[in-house]
Design brief:
homotetramer; alpha/beta; 14 strands
Chain lengths: 372, 372, 372, 372
């Protein structure tokens, strides 16, 4: 998805569709004297946020949330902006950990994390830190076990993140990626969505709008009632798998679809995951039977005399085999991160230690910037 | 549905929502000297059209398309407008036929029919008639067998009739009527739509938007493919009936659902028809087992140890148990009838004998009047 | 809507569609010795719950949540079940308060309220009460100001109430009622939904599925972003009103649409409210200009030279001019009330004083009963 | 879109999703002695049809419907199957014409065309031809001017082609391609669909399901009424362009959006075409102002001080910048071509000369093969 293009050209295009981020950058308070440690995906979409932070006077250290998503060209570009970034694509665990340790060593005053690696590595006691941000549910879960010495503001659970990104973008981009990767449509196909949280709801809606006959599985009875109110069938997992032509998991739970349950699925079923982990599907068992790789992102698995098509190796389909979020919709994310960082620098440090939901007023400022 | 109210009050309300009809009335050519025989449902929604015709100078005879739909207050109101109308609600066949014969005797110059009764009664040889209109598929079928002495313009098959009324209004009004009559929703219920022509498509869409899990039966493979492309399951009739909680017929074919096929339907299934006939469902067999009438329009039928709820006696649900079309959407119908009558008077008489589709230009004029 | 029918016939029909309530009744713990004070709408849909409570051995007092919704036939029927009920339709404030005082005097052990009248009347110190239930947002707000001597379990904020009733039922029933009351459709009409909480979302979705061109106003930028992600235009209130043909309020805020703002709306605009209060629209100003009442539930208001059609006097459209919830969907409500009452009797009393969200496990039990 | 892969690997994948084509191939009558001239896009999706024809004993000549869509690897593969194919990617007009002339010279007995080139080149008098097929509206228009010596069966106007391909596939694939090519979503963007025939309807539906605020322009009042019944705004072209953020043309008419009209569109508008021609947009004027090509398929055009993004050079977006139809949906197309060719060989030659709609029974057979 254009990943080979020079970062500068991509950035020029991106900037046409991120006006809120530009406005948030212009509204940042002076950050001279701040040392900010950012742990995130080192993708081109994050560049404008880094540029804004250094532009406001901060010293910035960037670490990879996941070495698999690091782009070296982006790292190089960030270096050019004055960001300290040692990460390289595919860093092995040792080097990845060393990069984080070095950034921690620099003595950050503020944190902006996706996954809480720096907080976890220091037991939440990073000495000079006044306040932090956390963007993921996984990170929030990990923070819950720590005796934090500073406040951390959770923005994963903001309505504008759950309600827009998780609810709409993931589903649509997953279905688009399905068509791109397989060359096959879902018109008239029976699609089973496993997991009916916000992501699953978006997936079910998108699959229906792409012409599929959609059914939904979820162990929570309230979720099944909600799915039924939109006219989705709500079979048990066993019933649903027995007739599914496409299975899309969005549970957030490893092994949500056990290998044994999958045995009943029809020959030729497509299997993909849009939840945050990579193990919702029985990836190990499937990969034991791989017989071919007919298209990038598609593995043919022969198991028990039946064919299964595993997409993106069971990793998050829209990210691992597609472009992730569109450029324009990421404008809200980076604008929000900038508004939140400004809040950290000016007010957040005076909040009590522990995890707080990012104040609605901060989120509203970012939303207003997007609305223009 | 307010049928008891004085016609004048209803008319005053109706006229607020039929501006196109008013514009079409104003644009009518002079009709002095014309004798127009109109065969239609003698309902309040038709009154503005009659008023326009008499206002333009025509002599008008009104006959009932069906004595069951005649409202005496409407007939009286029409008489007040100068229309010759002998029809009364529930006229027995003899009187109904006599009314038509008298109107034919008056020597009409133009016809505007719903069902072609006057043309059929005279073998299509009505002497003074220059041209006619026909509004129904049934009428068009009946005209096909006649050696017509004049041109008749078919407006049933106009895209704006098939694509708006049949495709949208019937389905929505049928689902609204279902909720009104039963007091029960279709959220999460399995609804089987039998017949996937324009009416069935509208019914399927409306049922989905009301929260049902919708499946579609149609013997035509192309119709099943089309339904599948919108994500509707397309079982056989037997498979569909075996799991349906609501069955809605829209086939246009008597006995589309035979009693034997219905035996497999679950206990407590609702049965209703939205096709033009009243015999798509096995009404006789069902009525043989009626055990109660718990609400107006609902019959409880016990057959073979299972309960079926028959709605509106198997007649067209939205008309027989509901208000039919909303007032505003009928504006297009009466505006079109007026434009078409003006066309008959000025140009239509010079067309060759036989059935023609009403020219698109005439329909477009009516549509433009509605668009305002 | 069949309100005249004998309650017994209605109940017989209702019971066909409330199997979960029957199962919840059968699963109730013995309630002998409990005195339960229920404050609710005295409508037929509540009868099965009362029957279950008395059937389980409880002594039950019923008070009206609102004298305007009390049905005398229902009150009589409840009396026949052994429920103590003094309420009559339209009780004046004094008698209404006296009824409540008498029930309080009886010394209830458990409360089940809609609006918290009994708790408020006693300052939350009702001596013998072990635990209570509250069903409305208004009630929860009122309880917040009290120093409660017992735990009250909030079930208004359960996902199955917000996500099903508020999100789906209200919107659909409001649109159905619009068509029933006006006789007019919304096909192609510009509908402005004011307020985009769960109710507003359901209204916007329903209006779109009924064929309207829908726009949404909400002061919260996140709500506007969410509406935009579904393709609804998101004008300011002034912009939206200037072109709206139908205005539907769902804000929960009195005077959400001020009279001055409404002045710019086009001639012939329909105005209705689906929020819980009756003053979201400028009812007083509108009623100062009433010139006619062409259909039940419709007032023609002439203001500043323009016509406005006020529906249901600005009260909640689906309740004040329609049947409220369908019978089948109310099954979840009464099943949940019974599960929750069983919980109060067995476990709830041991919780600390104050307001708690009803435990998810209780809600899940009710949801599972509905799923069958 | 994987066009670089070896044809054999693509074919192996394709064959997994084209079971109806395989069944139609197996059901072909013997074609020994037939010489079939096929004019089509020489794309991998057509290979199974050619393989079936040669497998049934026919001699087959393949000519390119458009040299721009010819893939040399496909041509080579066809040669390996025994098909006579001289076409190469990008053949200049002279060579393209010579290829066709040579195939005509071979004396075909049956024709299967997309665009009617062979019939037009011979004035419809190709001597040995018994019958032909035509797949495009353009071809049907061209045939109308000829005095055909043989029957030609039109399958473009079959309900399963108009109702599935044109109505659903084009719209969805166009929107997917929009996101792929631009990296930008349409969430909350105002999309103007120009032209509301079957293709435009599919585009409008798809754009709405992708989160856009959709409006529709069409000069036909009936089309505007139909769009309004689905809740799409129906401004004039001038009004619509003045606020459009994305313009998608689907009119089938060159210059449907004149340069002058486009001048009022906002800065940064995206322009793309999904109609069959490449000149619905003012391509020449736009290209006179091109200042950059930031991504493949995107041209930045600066005109009158405003920026316009022209996609795919104004050619059909889903084909010129995307993969066209998904593999599975093309199964119906090639199955239908085979059923139709079998019909030509056995019955079609006995029909009278001139253009006929392909009999519904033939289309139904293909549809049944797809339904499985």
């Amino acid at each position: 998805m254009n990943r080979e293009g020079p970062v500068e050209a991509e950035l020029a295009w991106l900037e046409r569709f991120t006006p809120a981020t530009a406005r948030a950058a212009a509204a940042l308070p002076g950050l001279t004297g701040e040392r900010i440690l950012v742990v995130c995906h080192l993708d081109v979409k994050m560049v404008p946020m880094f540029a804004a932070l250094t532009g406001a006077g901060a010293e910035v250290w960037a670490c990879a949330a996941n070495p698999a998503t690091t782009r070296d060209q982006v790292a190089a570009h960030l270096t050019g902006l004055g960001v300290r970034v040692a990460a390289r694509a595919g860093d092995p665990p040792g080097r990845h950990a060393a990069n984080l340790a070095a950034a921690i060593q620099a003595g950050p005053t503020l944190l902006s994390e996706m996954g809480a690696d720096a907080s976890v590595a220091t037991g939440g006691r990073l000495p000079g830190v006044r306040a932090g941000l956390e963007a993921t549910g996984t990170g929030i879960d990990r923070l819950a076990g720590l005796d934090l010495a500073y406040p951390v503001f959770n923005w994963d659970d903001l309505p504008i993140k759950q309600g827009l990104h998780n609810r709409h973008l993931v589903g649509l981009m997953a279905l688009i990626t399905f068509v791109n990767v397989t060359g096959v449509s879902v018109f008239g196909r029976r699609v089973l969505v496993v997991g009916y949280g916000p992501v699953g709801r978006g997936v079910a809606d998108a699959a229906r709008s792409f012409g599929a006959v959609v059914e939904v599985c979820d162990p929570a009875p309230g979720a099944r009632l909600a799915a039924g109110h939109l006219g989705f069938g709500t079979p048990s997992l066993a019933e649903g798998l027995a007739r599914a032509e496409v299975v899309l998991t969005a549970t957030g739970v490893d092994h949500a679809v056990p290998a044994a349950a999958l045995a009943a699925a029809p020959d030729g079923v497509f299997l993909a995951n849009v939840g945050h982990g990579s193990l919702e599907l029985p990836v190990a068992e499937l990969r034991a039977g791989v017989t071919g790789n007919p298209r990038p992102g598609v593995e043919v698995c022969e198991l028990g005399g039946r064919t299964r098509y595993l997409l993106a190796g069971g990793a998050m389909l829209n990210l691992a085999a597609g472009p992730g979020d569109p450029f324009d919709t990421f404008d809200l994310v980076t604008a929000l991160m900038l508004e939140a960082t400004g809040f950290l620098a000016t007010e957040g440090g005076s909040w009590p230690s522990g995890v707080h939901l990012l104040p609605a007023a901060v989120a509203d400022r970012a939303a207003r910037l997007v609305l223009g």
